[in-house]
Amino acid sequence: MITPVKKVNRFFMLALAPFIGLIFCLLLLRPELDTGTLLPSNLPEEHVTAQTQAISKELAGAKEAAIQTSSSIKRTTQLYNQTTSTMSTIVQKASVQASRPETIYNKRITSKLGVPFERVDSDRITIEMYRVNPGTYTGYAMKVKLKDHSAMQMALNSEPGRSETTMQAVKRSGAIAGINAGGFADSGGKRYPLSTTVMNGKYVNGFQASFKDLFFVGLNDAGKLVGGKFFDQGSLDRLRPQFGATFVPVLMKNGQKTIIPDKWKVSPKRAPRTVIGNYKDDQLLIIVVDGYNENGSSGATLEEMQGRLAKLGVIDAYNLDGGGSSSLILNNRVINKPSDGNLRPVPTHFLFYK
């Protein structure tokens, strides 16, 4: 694509070409004077003087033309430099203006979160960590901007049935941050990811149509959060998921609160929570809520999580595995307070890379 500055460069290169050619002709192709041919010895002195004066006059004219050409090139060069500088300024201002809506929107959502107590910024990702304390529960909100969609991945151990803590997954892969992801099912002393799971663009155990209150959530090949219920594989395939996991239930869709099944309103009523959502500019928001245990007496209800997400302007949101599975890691530190007292090993984790 030819930028405005490149167009100006091309124009002035074409404009200067005739002048440069003239100088080369004058300096390199000027014929040498043969005084023996031009001034025969038998010519009268007045004829020699006349020819010499004519030649001198031509040389003076050529010199004047060269001076004028040089002066014209100098003026053209100055104009070129001025125009190039002006065009560069215009392009820079246009770029700044184009980014203004994004900046304004980011300030709007950030103002609702408060002041971050920790920040990570690189050319691949920006992470900001906030405290969430509405009075009935305490927790943390992690806002993530993926500048490079490969800065978010999912960890799934290559050995089927093997699980690990989020901290172990973070350290093993060299990530800067991580959270627990989908649910799991225990069998034969091993822990397997629940239902449809995608890793590196492939189904780990095949596609399973959504049933009951389960949903799938992950990231597609364009770095966008995708999720929901999928009753046939083609519907999910069209979203091109690169990785993702399954749990219950969906909390927000297209900026609206979804209906929470009665079972999940009381089973348990309150609990430690991990939820993931996205803003309309595709930034991610992860909220991890603390709780003392999983008996329903501490933590947050799913309705409270919906209310908080709606106030923060989240568009889509999904409830990930909670209770003792809830974990939030940043800079090799456990940020939340796991209800088990220690991090719980689980099959899947969402990881973030600096």
TrEMBL record:
InterPro entries according to UniProt: NAGPA
Keyword field: Membrane, Transmembrane, Transmembrane helix
Record protein name field: Phosphodiester glycosidase domain-containing protein
Keyword DNA-binding: no
Transmembrane segments: 12-29
Origin species: Paenibacillus silvae
One Pfam family cited in the UniProt record for this chain: NAGPA
Record-annotated Phosphodiester glycosidase domain positions: 174-352
